[in-house]
């Protein structure tokens, strides 16, 4: 399935069906994230329910510490 993540095309396996699966696929599960799925900001508890479909647009913001 082809989706867009942060403006870049990405091909994901068919078993990546939800936002939670995408987070795991991208190895971001241990980071604090803000996820926008098709211009809708998702709460963390919605990650397992939000279904991905071909052509979806996802924006992922994660925070980097520093000083």
TrEMBL record:
InterPro entries: Beta-grasp_dom_sf (IPR012675), Mopterin_synth/thiamin_S_b (IPR016155), Thi_S (IPR010035), ThiS/MoaD-like (IPR003749)
Pfam families named in the record: ThiS (PF02597)
SUPFAM superfamilies recorded: MoaD/ThiS (SSF54285)
Gene3D superfamilies to which the protein is assigned, alphabetical: 3.10.20.30
Record NCBIfam families: thiS
Name of this chain's protein: Sulfur carrier protein ThiS
Species this protein is from: Oceanobacillus jeddahense
